[in-house]
Each structure stands twice: as structure tokens, then as C-alpha cells.
Amino acid sequence: MQKRLFSYRGWLVGIPVAFVALAVMVPILYLFVRAFDADGSQFIELLVRRRSVVLLLNTVSLAAVVLVLTTIIGFVFAWLAERTTFLSPRILTILGVLPLAVPGYVMAYVMLGSLGDYGLLARLTGIQISTISGFGGSALVLTLYTFPYMFLNLRSGLAGLDPALEESSRTLGYSSRDSLRYVVLPQLRPAFLAGAMLVVLHVLGDFGVVSLMRFETLSYAVFLQYSAAFDRTYAACLALILLLLSGLLLYLEFRLLRGFSATQSWTSPRRRVPPKPAAGMTVLGSIIVGAVALTAVCLPIVTIAYWSFNGTLGALSIGRAFRGSISAALPAAALAGFLALSIAYVRVRYTSRATIAAERIAYIGYATPALAFALAIIFFSLKAVPGLYQSMTLMILALSVHFLAEAIGPIRTALLKSSIRLEEAARSLGRSGFQAFREVTFPTIRSSVLAGTVLVFLSVMKELPITLLLSPTGFRSLAVNVWMFTNEAQFGMAAPFALLIIFASGCFAAFALRHHDPIPKSGDQ
Amino acid sequence: MIRYQNREINKFKTISALEAHNLVKSYNRGADRVLDGIDIVVPEGCLFSVLGSSGCGKTTLLRLLAGLDTPDSGTILVDGKVVTGPGTFVPPEERNIGYVFQEFALFPHLDVRSNIDFGLRQMESARRADRVAEVMDLLDLTDLATRMPHSLSGGEQQRVAVARSIAPFPRVLLMDEPFSSLDASLRQETRHQIRRVLKNQDITTILVTHDQEEALSVADTIAILSRNGIEQVGTPESVYYRPASEFVARFLGRTNLIESVSHGNTATTKIGVLSIDRQVTGNVVLSIRPEHLSLRKPGSSASEVVGRVVTREFKGHDITFEVMVDSTPFLVHTDNQVQFSPGDEVVVYAVQPAVVLNS
């Protein structure tokens, strides 16, 4: 098994794995170097500064509240879509995924532009709801924007459950409610942890929402420290705290998932639990689905429409920003898809300390707050390859490595389902290792590779902090424009860019849905 | 081979543990009718096997009995009380009917002990631990108590699944192809162990299978299910030796189906005049098992019908001959003392009466 890693196929996956490991680890090591630039005692003093503690508490409490809210919303959506006749699964899925097309800072723009101090409501009626910013506003927007990750994970977890488990529990005297509690929920643990991981990582790394909402978390403070105060050592120190927090999270997930047999929980069942009326879930479901539809769909439409007709738009700058976004997102997504496939493949097929570490590193790259990641890359490139500084190449590399983990998830899941026996059967029928992969394994996981790549594309289209810091001079993306104009409360100027981001991401979300529908077809006996 | 003593059907009490009447179930809004008016009556303590080929609705039947699905129409009674019927539906958790799934469906997050304990939460804790220990002992699972399901072999998983189902003293136990995922050598052994446990615990059981040997060797009573419904119900011996229909005759092992003209207690066939199992007159189809035929050398009698041995298959304890009589093939099963070779001229004769099939 081990030997095959070093065949030529081994190099095909070995090089990308090594590349990712280096691209992630170097900037992170750099953070340590920067943080310890100050002498030791000063570092400790910076670390325990009152402000650091406040920032840490802000960040953790925001993450906790968002996690609770996304779990409730995500579970209700998943349950309604998978198990009930409440609404068509298709409508629920679209509603549950649509918010992915509305990036956090656009959602923040919508909230501020509609209910904020200078928003639509204030302008038309004079009513000001100032609580829409700060902690509450941040939690609300981050929940709306991250619950789809929880929803998608929990739904595929539910769809992957063998109905016979619940039926066994029923015949052993458990009501459907008790079966949910004692059989279904424990089985959903890996799906929940995967979703929770994504949600919390988004909150920790978020810059756009908290900066527009003016709520100081660690990420936002890193940016302020760097751009406004130019205290790079304290910026590095704060980023390090954030990094340790993310590290703790990865470790926790690892500990919690240990001992859970992946092979048992991911085998795809032949049957599906037949959907029933929502019953006890009807009221809660109606409230949650209604609220999500209202805030994540109706509110953006109304707000952006209003501001589009009340702003001054320059067609030229729109075209330029659109081209800018696409020129970063396409190559970054393609590269990330390839890297993710390599890493997921060695992780699943050649599980060892080294391959687990490779995957962990990709997750670390994702968990590293985007701002800190971008900062470190700037300093490293200035020192090592000055020619790459402020180039498209560097920005694209940074973006694809940063978002890699989003593509690994679905690909790894698909690879776990695709039995190695298939590949071995192909080998026995005269295919080389690479041919077997290409002709047998790849076709079975193709839709997942595509889904992973599309996820990265979406993320890059929406990405703000890395683009903000790494883009070449004169480069404009839709995201940067939305953020800059919103930051100055120029909602009219921001509107067309926000609209374009939603449109582009929306198209790709729909595409992703059509080509990656994990709902098994019914027609069982 | 297991020899069957005449199992005392009479020992079963007259009340039935489970009954189903006129069950109808279809899928796709009535387009695919899977069960079309099924009736079964399962006596107390009986090991009742439903035997049928795949796709005849065996699993559907079990799911209806367990309350995991609802029939289009029909009634199900447990201990004479309606659990499914017009306007009545008792949910599965209140039926006290155990179910062993084909793929066992062990809870992957619980160890063997907790899986078995799962259904006992109504029991007081002292008794509960005793019961778990007792059931684990019955099925040789004591050493596996703390193992997780994914680390068990197929046979072990199967025993855990049975243990889990019988632990709460189910009124009736349903088993869906319980042995089909085990390999052949393990299957026979597990089968006997589980039969012993079920009898020891006096559990009324319905077992569905497509494996006729399994049904014959395990069951007290067999119901043969075809797409048209229940074809025949009886002891293994009676359905094997006295099949009611051509379907049953063919389904349970090899048989010779013979066109004949009967007149009272005998019928005229290609191999001569045979005695038959009941009084009937006219054209009928007879079934006669290969082991109820034998061979001898042709004598001088002119009325004898002479056939020719086509193949001879030596199987150790017995021999199967294929004999062509007037261009009709007959299978003959003899002991290994009968010495004929392909090409030999022989006379086929019956050692038991032939069975008249319902037309």
C-alpha cells in the first residue's frame, strides 16, 4: 500500500499535497515569527492585554450564538425537506441554499441599507433601529449566511440513514419522537460536527460582516490594527490568538469524531424514509422558513431594488469589477478542485499519519483567518519572491489554498462511499492504477468534485479580505466595491455590485443543485 | 439431512397469535399491486415460514404486520385484537412485534450490550440486566458484550439482531430473510442455533425466505406465496409430498409433472398405470417426486413401457437418473445400489402414489 504512493501516480498527488502543505504552513510560521518579533515579555503583555480578552470573548460569544441558531434553523430545514411533506423538498432546498448566494457583507449591506440608521426604513419613515448593527446585527447576518452549511450537512446525514434503524427502534417500543432522540440524533453527530465546523470557522474568519456592523472581533481587530494603527506586531499577536482558537476547534472535532465508524454511517441506504406530514414541526417550521424567506430572499430584493433606483451607477466600473471577480474565481476554483481531489484521494485510500496531516493542513489553511493569511502572504512574498507581490498569480494561489477545504469535504465523502473494491476490480481487468481511477472511481465521484469546485468558485466570488489585501494595484472586484461603498453608507453606489454578486452566485448555486442532488429517488418496495 | 419426526401440529393451542385477513397492498397509487388479498393464521408458538421467490411481496407482508407500513385494505389481529384494520392502526412501538431486518440494522453507535438493552427500557433495571445477560448467553454473545457492531462478523451481527429482537419478549417475532447474508457453512449452524433459541423461549415467529431448503428445515408450518397469493399452507412434509399446485410442486425441489387420464384410484400415464392419492376422473396433471420413482431391468411383459437412461449423476449417498420414456424426460432418484449406465434400457416404476394437482 505504502509503496504505491511513490509510483508516478504518487507524484501526481504527492506534489499537490506538498504544495498545499507548504503554502499553508509558511504563512502560519510567519505569524509566529512576527508575533515573537517583539521580545518575549512584551509578547506576553500583548497577549493578556485587556483588549485581547475582550476581543476573544466577543468572538467566542458570537460564534456560540450563531452556532445555536444555525443548528436550529439547519435542522428544521433538513428535517422538513427530508422527512416531511411540509413543502416540496426542492423549494426547501432552494430556500436553504439561496443564502449561500448572498455573502455576509452583502447581507450586512441589506440589513444596514434597509433597517439601519441611514437605510431605506429610516429614509422613508424616519424610524431608526440602531440595534441592527453591533452584536445582534452580526449574529443575525452571520446566521442567515452560514446556516446553509448546517442544513446541507444535516440533510445528507438524514438521507444517509438506513430507515431500518428507525424501524428497529419502533419495533422495540420507541415512539417516533424517541427514535429521533435515541437513534437518529446520535447518527447525525458526524454531519452536525462537519456543519458546526464550517459555521464556526466562518464566524471566526469573518471580516466583512463584523466590519460593516462595527462589532470588534479578533478578525476585525487584526484589520484595524494593520490598516489603521499599523501596529504589525499586535496584529500578528491577535491573529495568533485567532489561530490558536481555530486550532482548538480542529482538535475538538478530531476528538469528537474519533471512534465513530465512517464506513457504517456513510453507506448509502437503498430505501428512503417516506415523508410524512410535518405534524409537531408545522408551527416552528412555518415561522423559521417564513423568516428565512423574508430576510434572506425578500429583504435583499426590496433593498437592492430600492437603492438601484436611487443611486448613480457607472456602467464602466461595473464591467471592470465583474471581469475582475471572474478572472480570480475561475482559475482559483479549478486549481482548488484539483488540489482537493489529490488530498482527499490520498487521505481516503492511503490513510496514514502523513495523509491525515495533509488534510488537516488544508483545514488549517481554511481555518486561518483570511486577513491573517493574506497579511502573512504579503510579508512572505516581499521577503522571498518580491516579483509575485501584488500579482494576480499570488492572489489566485492564496485564494485557492484558502478555500481548498470547502472542496475536500464533498470529495472525501464521495470517495468514502466509492469502494476501493471497484478500483481493484478494474485493476484485475487490466487497468493501471491511474486508468482504474480515471475510468471507475472518478466517474462515480465526478458530481462531488464538481460540487466542491463550484463551492470554491462561489466563495472566491464573494471573498473580501484576501482580495482586499492581495489584489494588484487598480484591481477591482464586485466584493471590494460593495464593501467600500457600504462602509461609507453609500448604499446606492453599492447596490449594482451587490446585485451582480447575488446574480452570479445564484446562478452557480442553482447549477450546483441541479448537478449534485443527494436526494435518492423514491420507488422502493 | 434432517429427518422429520411428525411435528405435533396439535400441540399448538387453538387461539392464533397473529392473523391477517384479505391484506391488499399496492405501490405507485395502486399501479403495482404487491399483495392481493393475503390471509394467514399463525398459531401460538409456531415457527411459521413464508416461502416465495423474490418480488412476491414477502417483505411487504412483514412490514404490514409490524406496522411499518399500512395496507390498502385488510385486517391484522394480534391475540385476537385488531392492530390494523378499518379505522384502526396501532403504531409499531405499541404492537410488541419484534423484527429482524435482512441487513440486521444494528445501531452503529451502540455496543452489543446496549443494542440488546435498547428495547428493555420499560423493564425495571435489575430484571433488565438479567434479561440482557440471559439473551446474550442464549446466543453466545457474552464475550462480545462491549464490541461495536462494525467489528462483528456477519454471523455475530445476525445473533445480536436476533438477541435484540427477542429480549423484550415480543408477542410475535418477524424475520426477513435472516440467513441470506450469511455464507453457506455459517447459515446452517446459525439456523439451528436460532431455531433452538426460538423454541426454548417459545416465541411465535414468522420467517420469510426465498430459500426452500431453509423453510423446509426450520419451519413448523410453511406458507407458499406466489404473485397470485398464498398457494398452500401446511407442514414441510405435506407441502413437499402433497403439493397442491404445479407452482408449489416446482418451487419445492425437483419433481416430475405427468399428464394423465385418471379413473378412480389410478391414472394412465406414459410410464404405465400409477396409483394416485385421491379419487378423481378425467384429464389431470400428476406430480411425483424423483425419489418416489425407481428403476428396474425390463422384463418380458409386453405391457411394460421401456425407457432409456440418458444421464446418471452420482451424488454419494444417492444417484439421480434422467430417463427418456417416449421422448418425455423423467427424473429418478435412487439409492446408490441401483446400477444402470447411460444407454441402458430400463423400466420406470412408482414406489408411492402420485399426487393429483389442482388444475
3D architecture notes:
- The complex is a heterodimer of chains A (525) and B (359).
- With 525 residues, chain A is mostly helical.
- Chain A has two domains: 1-35 and 312-476, MetI-like fold (Orthogonal Bundle); 37-255 and 281-310, Orthogonal Bundle (MetI-like fold).
- Chain A has helices spanning 8-35, 40-47, 50-83, 89-97, 104-115, 120-125, 134-159, 163-171, 176-187, 189-205, 208-213, 218-229, 232-257, 262-266, 282-309, 315-349, 353-367, 370-384, 392-417, 420-428, 433-462, 465-470, 478-487, 491-515.
- Chain B has two domains: 16-96 and 170-250, P-loop containing nucleotide triphosphate hydrolases (Rossmann fold); 256-356, Beta Barrel (OB fold (Dihydrolipoamide Acetyltransferase, E2P)).
- In chain B, 41% of the residues are buried.
- In chain B, strand 5 (81-85) and strand 6 (88-89) form a beta hairpin.
- Helices cover 22% and strands 38% of the residues of chain B.
- The chains are: A mainly alpha (525), B alpha+beta (359).
- The interface between A and B is medium-sized, with 26 and 35 residues.
Give a short synopsis of this structure.
With 525 residues, chain A is mainly alpha-helical. Chain A has helices spanning 8-35, 40-47, 50-83, 89-97, 104-115, 120-125, 134-159, 163-171, 176-187, 189-205, 208-213, 218-229, 232-257, 262-266, 282-309, 315-349, 353-367, 370-384, 392-417, 420-428, 433-462, 465-470, 478-487, 491-515. Chain B has 8 helices and 19 strands.
- How far apart the termini of chain B lie comes to 32 Å
Order of helices and strands of chain B: EEEHEEEEHHHEHEHEEHHEEEEEEEE
What is the architecture of the largest domain in chain B at the second tier of CATH?
A: 3-Layer(aba) Sandwich
The helix/strand class of chain B is: alpha+beta
What is the subunit arrangement here?
A: heterodimer
The span between the termini of chain A is: 41 Å
Number of beta strands of chain A:
0
CATH fold call of the largest domain in chain A? MetI-like fold
DSSP, total strands of chain B: 19
SSE string of chain A: HHHHHHHHHHHHHHHHHHHHHHHH
* Number of helical stretches of at least 4 residues of chain B: 8
Structural class of chain A: mainly alpha
Largest sheet of chain A: none
